[in-house]
Structure formats: C-alpha cells, structure tokens
C-alpha cells in the first residue's frame, strides 16, 4: 500500500506521518518513509537548490517545476518501485503529485493539464492508493512556521500564496474523492491521528 501526505507548509504533516508510521509498525507491518523533494542522492541535491533562497534567488517557474519533477522521477525509480515490488511493505511519502499541482499550479499559476502530463511521465503512472490532505487555515499554518522554524524560499511567501494553495488542494481533492481524504488539521493532534489511522486500517 502506498500513502501520500499533502498540505500547506505548517499543516502538521511530519507529526502525523510519524504517528501513522509508528501505528502501522505496532501492527507488525514494515513501513518505509520517503520525502519530496529529497530522499535519493539526486533528490537531496535538488532539495538543497530549491530551498536555498540566498544562493539561488528567484527561479523561473518552469525551472522550479522541472526540478520537483526530476526529484520525483528519481524517487519513483530508485525507491517507490522497488518497495512496491516487495508485497508486504507500506510506503508513506511526504508530498507527491498533488504538491506540484497545488504549489506550481494553483500557487504559481502554471497550467494544471501540463503538470498532470509531467506528473504522468515522472511517476510512470504510479499513484498513491490513499492521500491524506491535512487542511487548515493558512493563518494557523503560517503561525506554526513562524514559531518553530527558520523560513525557506516557499515559507517567505505571503498569505495569498497559501490561500491559493489551500483552495487548489481542495479542488484537487474534489476531483478524486476516493483517493484523497481531506482531514481537518485544526483538530488536536491525537484526534487527527486517530481519524487517519481509522481510514488507513479500513484500507489495509
Ligand atoms: P519541506 O521542508 O519538505 O516542506 P514541508 O515540511 O512543509 O513538506 O519543503 C518542501 C517545499 O517545497 C514546500 O514548501 C512545498 C514545496 N513543494 C512544491 O512547491 N512543489 C512540489 O512538487 C513539492 C514536492 C514540494
């Protein structure tokens, strides 16, 4: 089984991913955690480029899109396909195809049909069985970022950018309600975790 997590920066993905992984392992199932952009050798180099605003400055929106796509291509080839071939393992990936649609499509204004086309190429058609979209108001997520982290190039964007991404994510979820489950990430952490586990359990 292949699960992806999506949401705006600061929506609490990392916390929920770690809680779900622990619960899956408590139930005796091996679980591999992957992250985008990153994880592979090439992906980690791309991640550094994409995040280092000081060094890279403004990237053209096409360059940004293709760097995310290149990182995903490596992830699919080197990690996702081999793990899926081992039948008794689960994969959780922190961001996947829907991040590109939400950020580069709805956020930066890139044509979503073209993004879908690029996503199809780099994923070789491999889609998650289940996607959790952690939905919260950008006020809340931006507040979390300001409190807990140093900001990177995406996290210095304004509220409008995050509002566009949030509504983009909700549009994407409407198109694929079977795969994408919208979770209210403003609820307390244990409540969010238990909703996510209940849905996962029913699909295992
Ligand atoms: P990261 O630190 O992983 O953010 P988070 O912990 O919130 O997932 O940084 C990844 C950033 O890259 C994040 O701001 C979302 C953005 N992103 C895109 O714009 N497009 C993409 O296709 C992906 C995978 C990420």
Walk me through the structure.
The termini are close together. It contains nine helices and five strands, in the order βαβαααβααβααβα. It has a single domain, classed as P-loop containing nucleotide triphosphate hydrolases (Rossmann fold), CATH 3.40.50.300. The mean pLDDT is 91. The protein is 59% helix and 14% strand. With 204 residues, the chain is α/β, with parallel strands linked by helices. Strands 2-3-1-4-5 form a five-stranded parallel beta sheet, with helices on both faces. Thymidine-5'-diphosphate binds next to helix 1 and helix 5.
Secondary structure topology:
Elements: E1 2-7, H1 13-26, E2 30-35, H2 41-51, H3 53-56, H4 61-85, E3 89-94, H5 97-107, H6 112-123, E4 130-135, H7 138-148, H8 159-175, E5 180-184, H9 189-203
Parallel strand pairs: 1-3, 1-4, 2-3, 4-5
Helix pairs in contact: 1-9, 2-4, 4-6, 5-6, 5-8
